[in-house]
Write a structure and sequence with these properties.
Layout lengths: L7 H31 L6 E8 L6 E8 L9 E10 L2 E12 L8 E9 L1 H11 L7 H11 L4 E4 L17 E5 L2 E10 L13 E10 L6 H40 L14 H26 L8 H10 L5 H4 L1 H17 L2 H11 L6 H30 L1
Parallel strand pairs: 5-9
Antiparallel strand pairs: 1-2, 2-3, 3-4, 4-5, 6-7, 7-8, 8-9
Length: 392
């Protein structure tokens, strides 16, 4: 059983050792959770089960989350552990962080462990869910399902005045969708052993308080946005450089294997700005093709084309396209997948950089593109509706 006297590495490894049994338990519970989700009238919805591991006696909470009724049979699953210290229950999160040394093409998983005090969740409750009646267990489910995307922020005076007074461990914070987590962060172990089987390297985070954007000044919110954007751009720039290097060396190896005597000229390296520009142009090209194909598939005898009428209808609807016009939504999704696959490698990569998706995955990129497409449709719908009214 994990206890405060254990090292952070020992606690993390003990929790990882329990994970297979946790996953088995979660899979066994999904049919029961699905039935409960199907009885819900409001979404998103959360369910949870407290579980004690039979061998280690470690205590856990298994959280189930369904964003919509369509996800009832396949809810998201999260695992949290509990650690008792001075008669207080501390929530423990554990997992892996990606370690990537700049200039290297290797992304290596390293251990991570995070500790959340009761004070942190008290602040989260009063600042996000002040007038909502819920148990502590549901509060945990809500926090961890809603705040998966995390952007590290390097603190400065505009974000938090006098942050330097708290020492070296307090120079970072995490921006999450619901607000900002102020933390203490440090690494333990030998960093040079990262990637080795017996590495003792681990990142430790203490989450000590939570603040939402409404509590901060305009200067603080702008500073957080600026720092978050800087981190994202630096991350994608590093990723972009690494991918270009990988493509370069892959091409050299292919040429070597094929024993090509006359080497074709290598393409020039393009800048990050040029890559984003190509990505934007590629998205516009995909949108234009989809509009043309939709109008071709659905000829209109009216003054307005099928797509313009659909845009107007969407702009006047109270719900997103998936709920308002499910058939059109499915058709556009399919077209977008087809057009994405038809792009060349450079266009696909630049689109990935432009959209800031987490991974170069077709589903993720198409989903992100669709958000842009739907916003574009709504703006177009407002404009076309105004034009139509004026003509009448």
């Amino acid at each position: 059983m994990i206890v405060p006297s254990m090292s952070h590495l020992e606690i993390c490894d003990a929790l990882f050792a329990d994970r297979p049994k946790l996953q088995i338990r979660a899979r066994a519970l999904i049919p029961k959770m699905s039935k409960q989700f199907k009885k819900e009238r409001k979404f998103p919805a959360w369910k949870w089960v407290e579980y004690t591991h039979q061998q280690s006696h470690n205590r856990y909470q298994i959280c189930f989350y369904a964003q919509t009724s369509a996800q009832a049979d396949n809810p998201d699953v999260n695992y949290l552990a509990f650690l008792e210290e001075d008669h207080q229950r501390i929530v423990v999160q554990w997992g892996c962080w990606i370690y990537r040394k700049h200039g290297s093409m290797d992304a290596i998983a390293t251990r991570y462990i995070g500790y959340f005090s009761g004070h942190f969740f008290s602040r989260y409750r009063e600042r996000i869910w002040k007038n909502v009646d819920m148990s502590f267990n549901e509060l945990l489910c809500r926090y961890f399902s809603r705040n998966i995307p995390t952007i590290p922020l390097e603190l400065n005076e505009d974000i938090q005045r006098n942050y330097k007074e708290y020492g070296e461990l307090a120079k970072y914070a995490f921006q999450v969708p619901d607000g900002t987590c102020f933390i203490r962060h440090w690494n333990e172990g030998d960093e040079t052993t990262v990637g080795q089987k017996d590495s003792d390297f681990i990142s430790v985070v203490l989450y000590y308080t939570f603040v939402n954007g409404g509590m901060m000044t305009e200067t603080q919110n702008k500073a957080i946005l600026k720092e978050g954007t800087r981190y994202i751009r630096d991350y994608y720039k590093s990723l972009f450089e690494d991918v270009m290097k990988e493509a370069f060396f892959r091409r050299l190896n292919i040429q070597k294997q094929e024993n090509i005597i006359e080497q074709p000229p290598m393409p020039q390296m393009i800048s990050m700005e040029e890559c984003e520009q190509i990505g934007c142009q590629t998205e516009d090209k995909v949108f234009d093709i989809i509009v043309a194909k939709l109008n071709q598939r659905h000829p209109s005898a009216n003054v307005l084309s099928y797509f313009d009428q659909l845009s107007i209808d969407l702009s006047q609807s109270d719900e997103i396209m998936q709920n308002s016009f499910p058939e059109a939504y499915a058709e556009i999704q399919n077209l977008m997948h087809e057009e994405y696959r038809a792009l060349n490698e450079l266009e696909q990569h630049c689109l990935f950089i432009y959209l800031f998706t987490n991974d170069k995955d077709e589903d993720e990129i198409v989903e992100s593109m669709f958000w842009h497409f739907e916003e574009w449709m709504e703006e177009r719908g407002h404009d076309k509706h105004s034009e139509y009214i004026c003509k009448k």
